[in-house]
């Protein structure tokens, strides 16, 4: 390639074979110039580029050439609706729900998924002053395994009466704000969660284990 | 989760959520899924070129990440790890012979009919990029998507692709040139 790369006629690729050459007449590496533009540094010109017409023309040309890529990069692509829900649904299926039996009457059995109990407890905890983050789970480790085994019989309405009965164990992990006494917040959580589960779900015997595992300042995330 | 409870839930770091998810808090993993599902889908879409494949890849990757959470090393970046899983799953999907031919990498680009000429031209240019991207060999496409589209530094791109920084630079070099030539032809 010879002569300055400047004002190429539009629509004629043969007239601007920038990428057909390895270097410009000034010796600048064409690929490095393209990299400079592609990395968004097209306007950051070094001392040579500030006085070299070949480099200036090439950088301008590459900026125009790369513009559709930049545009595509900036285009928002949201997740399809329902993707996160579908993922969590499959994961919940894999871990299998644990069920609490609330009542067995002549009319039938009332059951509620343990995760619903945990979710209600978590949402309740999040509303308590001083709580920054609250995460809930129904039971943990060996207790969960035992509960699952024990409640398996609930597919048979009367088989497992009394195994768990109306008792729920809820674990909550919370992060509290710096200014609030952690033990006081934890007690508030226990009181409020127990009341909520009694009122909204009908669980009479609820144990709420609260783990305060972080204390965050106002500006911390 | 109620709207009020969701509003009361501040943003916390991925590391905190990963640690809680490893302890069995599904809630924590749900927050990670909500936070990263758009990225998983976006990368999968750009790598496979097909909406349904991308949805499958994103879903499989997020479930695989949960299944392998015990292997996740504290101190690592969850997003880098997820990028890695998505990229591998996309490669599997593409190499199973499903040709990536769709042009739906940019949802929302409307029917050209009735649009101003400049907008139509711009959309065609974006389509040309999409075509050119999908025509690249997968390793080149992956580094372009990860580095230029997702903005990952060279080192992180190398980590995601299980490669070296110099290999990433080499793939990028060829991929940029190939994309540039396609765009020159298109113009």
General description of the model:
The complex is a heterodimer of chains A (221) and B (187). With 221 residues, chain A is an alpha+beta fold. Chain A has two domains: 25-74, no CATH class; 97-216, Cation efflux protein, cytoplasmic domain (Alpha-Beta Plaits), CATH 3.30.70.1350. Chain A is 42% helix and 19% strand. Chain A is built from seven helices and five strands. Chain A has helices spanning 30-38, 47-51, 53-74, 83-95, 114-126, 141-151, 182-200; strands at 99-105, 108-113, 131-137, 167-177, 205-216. In chain A, the strands form two sheets. In chain A, strands 3-4-5 form a three-stranded mixed beta sheet, covered by helices on one side. Chain A has a two-stranded antiparallel sheet with strand order 1-2. In chain A, a hairpin with a 2-residue loop joins strand 1 (99-105) and strand 2. In chain A, helix 1 (30-38) runs parallel beside helix 3 (53-74) and helix 5 crosses helix 7. The longest helix of chain B has 23 residues, at 26-48. With 187 residues, chain B is mostly helical. Chain B folds into two domains: 11-99, RNA polymerase sigma factor, region 2, helix turn helix motif (Rna Polymerase Sigma Factor, Chain: A), CATH 1.10.1740; 113-187, Arc Repressor Mutant, subunit A (Orthogonal Bundle). Chain B has helices at residues 3-8, 14-22, 26-48, 51-67, 78-95, 117-135, 138-149, 154-161, 165-186. Chain B contains nine helices and no strands. In chain B, helix 2 packs across helix 3 (26-48). Helix content of chain B is 72%, strand content 0%. The radius of gyration of chain B is 18 Å and the shape is elongated. At the A-B interface, helix 1, helix 3, helix 4, helix 5 and strand 3 of A face helix 1, helix 3, helix 4, helix 6 and helix 9 of B.
